[in-house]
UniProtKB/TrEMBL annotation:
Residues 325-339 have a biased composition (Polar residues). Residues 5-268 form the 5'-3' exonuclease domain. Its EC number is 2.7.7.7. PANTHER family: DNA POLYMERASE I, DNA POLYMERASE NU. This is DNA polymerase I. Keywords: DNA damage, DNA repair, DNA replication, DNA-binding, DNA-directed DNA polymerase, Exonuclease, Hydrolase, Nuclease, Nucleotidyltransferase, Transferase. NCBIfam families: pola, PRK05755.1. It holds the Pfam family DNA_pol_A. Belongs to the DNA polymerase type-A family. Residues 731-938 form the DNA-directed DNA polymerase family A palm domain. PROSITE patterns: DNA_POLYMERASE_A. InterPro entries: 3'-5'_exonuclease_dom, 5-3_exonucl_a-hlix_arch_N, 5-3_exonuclease, 5-3_exonuclease_C_sf, DNA-dir_DNA_pol_A_CS, DNA-dir_DNA_pol_A_palm_dom, DNA/RNA_pol_sf, DNA_polI_H3TH. Residues 368-562 form the 3'-5' exonuclease domain.
């Protein structure tokens, strides 16, 4: 090597963990082998090499090598046995990938360097020294602070995740000392991640100040008696030997007895066939195609290499020693295998082993930590970075994330290791504003500034239960959480319809653990309190347990995605929707108070008039809102048919009972139904909506639940904006109160008959497919097919009946239900349904095959693979069984429609931004409809983009056999736009 050359040294072990945590799990399709980290490693290395080769001549590498840790045992463990003793074992599905990644490095035609007894950092330090002595430059591909001691004018670090170069000025800016003092700085600070003791009570800022004053560690320790601060002086004197030992632990060896010289690192042109052969063996099709294009190779002519899955000594990596039994004490499952003492888990075995281990693991809330100072928080943040994963949750004074003030947050870095960071707990008895802050809390601004880089780091996975709440809370503090998993959504994807996905239920089900009850923390009734008024020690146990349980749940649930083949459902339909919904909730929508007030008054008058008519028909005055009194009038006094009593002995007066009576021509029940509708609209919307206006934004912010329905439909609450009736005049008038800001319009984009289109797709109905393809009125076509009536000049009543049947069939409507809906005899309704199945036999086939599939598997699937479970479909009770059969028939249709709009929502922001329509914002989702707010100047351009995204949302996962159609228009309020 000579002057002018440029050496690239890749911290291979760091790359492995970044690749593992930054990307979703991936398995090789042919055998289920975990390959996600290997895929990420290959993609990152390929990009790095391409970028490096295409850079300026002076910066392009002439020499290139990837350096790995041989194992976790090095000469440092002989010096200090506790060195890195608190490191957790690597994830089970990562273990077989250590060997694969070494094979990958060689397939790239790059040196793959490691040495027993030394860390990768020591090898990097040695090679960097040799390169500098030869007059060459060195770029170390890593952001590890331990390597910053190597930075010189000839040696720099490069963090590819942040695209940031770290030279001498950057080290000084971050740590307050130049690179040559980093060893002494780390010796004073210590490192909780690597279990380096340092000097207790000395954090980064203090260490930098001391070194600036005394020059170096030896001088500082020799003059420690001069320090005026008692605690600091005593700590330095007492822990002198710890500081000296810590210096030896952090000092990188620059004289490793290497066996491979720099001359072997000369960068060669890419060997296309060799790399493609490996990539094909791994089944990395996208990267295979890219490599083939760049290297001008015919990938189809290259055979896949034989790449053995190696164990024993080849299963090397951080915290995993060659030849040891297993990285964890997890029992070997039935479908796991063992080779050279190392367990090889299939996806099913890993999931089973994790669940077994989690169920028996103890909890110790007394071991949880309360973090009172910034230095300790930064140490935990460093620990999270090393682990590559952290459970996180916020605690605040309100369940509404748009108005919540942070009381603190909790974190967990491994099972059993969790902490709480109090920020805003109040004493409650010192002033008229609810009390001053309790002692021992980090200023919120400082804590969040320290936390922000971690939460925004895509290489560290953040885990939460119901992440969307935390997402909104953090976003209001200008923190954008990146790279995350949500245990609630994992459970939902895996088990929708089988059990609750609440935090408490999941802890009990999977961990056998009863979490601290919320009522024990918040109280109840008049004695209830917000979280910021809870005493810190009590709050810490509750919050830290939350983080600990969440991390353990993630370890149990995540492997099941691979086992059950549901990775794509989670990655494409659930996880990416979290930030999209969080943005929508934060944006909210404006409402016109005056319109609502006017409608409220008119609804009150209408309800009063109906109440008078009801009293007249009943022949006496009674409380119309009392089910008990109403039942006595209808079935006790008037002896109307169909009366039945509840378990309490009262007459049942449900909406369905009243609707049935009204359909039979009874006037009083009809009036009651109308009265209930008016009073519900008044209480739920016209009276309540103004109370939901956020005082800061002046807008209404609904909250969406992703895991609320079995089929995948979203639900809305506080306020619920999905149940405003669209077919009644009153409901449309309420929608007219939803308005844009001045200078803007609302855009409503609504899928037309999407569930019928999905039915035509899945049930192989030629007539329906043709009608949708031709743009024919589907209800008129159905009427024509069934009743032999020409489409031209068709009576409205005939079309209405066909429409009722079309939609009723989707929901498994019975002859009794159709008869009530159309006000016809049950025999006639039964004949309609029978004839419908005769004309469209594919629908009957679909229904029967769906029921059979559900009975066999216990679930049904949407066209995108989402599962809805119906465990009671084999129930002995006929009514329960029939209900589950109807639900199972409907779920693939309704669920597929829900999945399509989810896919559209995930893609929408990027599509609008790409078109330069940054001011057009998605605000609401109401079943098959999306509502946007856009400047008047953008609306015309936005509508085609919105329509295109929605109509193409199923692609490329599913090629719909019928076209999707979206009606979209802009207007001055929601009703006019609909």
């Amino acid at each position: 090597m000579k002057q002018g050359d440029h050496l690239f040294l890749v911290d291979g072990s760091g790359y492995i963990f970044r690749a593992y945590h930054a990307l979703p799990p991936l398995t090789r399709k042919s055998d289920g082998l975990p390959v996600g980290a290997a895929a990420g490693f290959c993609n990152m290395l390929w990009k790095l090499m391409q970028d490096a080769r295409n850079t300026d001549v002076g910066d392009a590498p002439t020499h290139f090598a990837v350096i790995f840790d041989y194992s976790s045992k090095t000469f440092r463990n002989e010096l200090y046995p506790e060195y890195k003793a608190n490191r957790s074992a690597p994830p089970e599905d990562l273990i077989p990938q250590f060997g694969l990644i070494r094979h990958a490095t060689r397939a790239f035609d790059l040196p793959c360097v490691e040495m027993e007894g030394f860390e990768a950092d020591d090898l990097i330090a040695t090679y960097a020294r040799l390169a500098s002595e030869a007059g060459a430059e060195t770029t170390i591909i890593s952001s590890d602070k331990d390597l910053m001691q190597l930075v010189t004018p000839q040696v720099s670090l490069y963090d590819p995740m942040k695209d940031k170069e770290i030279k001498v000025p950057e080290v000084i800016e971050k740590w307050g000392v130049p690179p040559e003092k980093m060893i002494d700085l780390q010796a004073l600070m210590g490192d909780s991640v690597d279990n380096i003791p340092g000097v207790p009570g000395i954090g980064q800022k203090t260490a930098a100040q001391l070194l600036a004053e005394y020059g170096d560690l030896d001088t500082l320790l020799s003059r420690a008696h001069e320090i005026k601060q008692n605690k600091r002086r005593e700590s330095l004197i007492e822990h002198r030997e710890k500081a000296l030992m810590s210096r030896e632990l952090v000092r990188l060896k620059q004289d490793v007895p290497i066996t491979e010289g720099l001359e072997t690192f000369t960068l060669q042109p890419p060997n296309g066939p060799k790399l493609i052969s490996f990539l094909k063996a791994m089944e990395f099709t996208t990267l295979t195609r890219r490599v083939a294009e760049i290297t001008d190779c015919d990938a189809s002519a290259i055979e896949a290499a034989h790449v053995p899955v190696q164990w024993g000594k080849e299963a090397r990596g951080p915290d995993l020693d060659p030849g040891t039994a297993s990285a964890t004490s997890t029992p070997v499952a039935a479908d796991a295998s063992s080779h050279n003492g190392v367990t090889h888990y299939t996806p099913a075995a890993l999931a089973s082993a994790r669940a077994s281990a989690a169920a028996g693991a103890p909890f110790d809330t007394s071991a949880y930590v309360v973090i009172h100072d910034l230095a300790t928080l930064n140490a935990w943040i460093g620990e999270a970075r090393e682990a590559g994963v952290i459970a996180f949750n916020t605690k605040s004074n309100s369940a509404d994330p748009m108005q919540a003030e942070l009381a603190g947050f909790a974190i967990a870095t491994r099972p059993g290791r969790a902490a709480y960071v109090p920020l805003g707990h109040k004493s409650g008895d010192t002033d008229m504003f609810g009390g001053g802050l309790r002692d021992g809390q980090i200023p919120a601004r400082d804590a969040l500034a320290a936390l922000k880089p971690l939460l925004e780091d895509s290489s560290v996975l953040k885990i939460s239960q119901n992440l969307k709440h935390d997402f909104v809370v953090m976003n209001r503090h200008v923190i954008d959480i990146r790279a995350f998993d949500d245990t609630q959504l994992l459970s939902y994807v895996l088990d929708a319809g089988t059990h609750s996905h609440s935090f408490e239920a999941l802890a009990e089900r999977w961990l056998g653990h009863q979490v601290i009850a919320a009522k024990d923390i918040y109280g109840s009734g008049k004695s209830s309190r917000s979280f910021d008024m809870v005493e810190i020690a009590q709050a810490a146990a509750y919050a830290a347990e939350d983080a600990d349980v969440t991390l353990r749940l993630w370890r149990v649930l995540r492997p099941r995605l691979v086992e059950d083949g549901l990775v794509n459902v989670y990655e494409r339909l659930e996880r990416p929707l979290v930030p999209a919904l969080a943005q929508m909730e934060q944006r909210g929508i404006s409402i016109d108070r005056q319109i609502l007030s006017r409608i409220s008054g008119e609804l009150a008058q209408g309800a009063a008039a109906l109440e008078e008519e009801i009293q007249v028909l009943a022949g006496e005055k009674f409380n119309v809102g009392s089910p008990k009194q109403l039942g006595e009038i209808l079935f006790g006094k008037l002896n109307l048919p169909g009366g039945s009593k509840t378990k309490t002995g009262q007459w049942a007066t449900s909406a369905q009972i009243l609707e049935d009576l009204a359909a039979e021509g009874h006037e009083l029940p009809r009036k009651i139904v109308d009265w209930r509708q008016l009073t519900k609209l008044k209480s739920t919307y016209t009276d309540a909506l103004p109370g939901f206006i956020n005082p800061e934004t002046g807008r209404v912010h609904t909250s969406y639940a992703l895991a609320a329905t079995t089929t995948g439909r979203l639900s809305s609450s506080d306020p619920n904006l999905q149940n405003i009736p669209v077919r009644t005049a009153e409901g449309r008038r309420i929608r007219a109160a939803f308005i844009p800001e001045p200078g803007n319009v609302l855009i409503s984009a609504d899928y037309s008959q999407i569930e019928l289109r999905v039915l035509a797709h899945v049930a192989e109905i030629p007539q329906l497919r043709q009608a949708f393809s031709d743009g024919v009125d589907i209800h008129a076509m159905t009427a024509s097919e069934m009743f032999g009536v020409p489409v031209e000049g068709m009576p409205g009543e005939v079309r209405r009946r066909a429409k009722a049947i079309n939609f009723g069939i989707i929901y498994g409507i019975s002859a009794f239900g159709l008869a009530n809906q159309l006000s016809i005899p049950r025999e006639e309704a039964s004949a309609y349904i029978r004839k419908y199945f005769e004309r469209f036999p594919g629908i009957k086939d679909y229904m029967e095959s769906t029921k059979a599939f559900a009975r066999e598997h216990g679930y049904v699937e949407t066209i995108f693979g989402r599962r809805a479970h119906y465990p009671e479909i084999r129930a002995s009770n006929p009514s329960i069984r029939a209900f589950n059969e109807r639900a199972a028939i409907n779920a693939p249709i309704q669920g597929s429609a829900a999945d399509i709009i989810r896919r559209a929502m995930v893609r929408m922001e990027e599509a609008l931004a790409k078109a330069g329509l940054d001011q057009t914002r998605m605000l609401l989702q109401v079943h098959d409809e999306l509502i946007f707010e856009a400047p008047e100047s953008e609306a015309e351009a936005a509508i085609p983009i919105i329509r295109s995204v929605m109509e193409g949302a199923a692609m490329p996962a599913v090629a719909m056999k019928v076209p999707l159609h979206v009606d979209a228009r802009a207007a001055r309020n929601w009703d006019e736009a609909h």
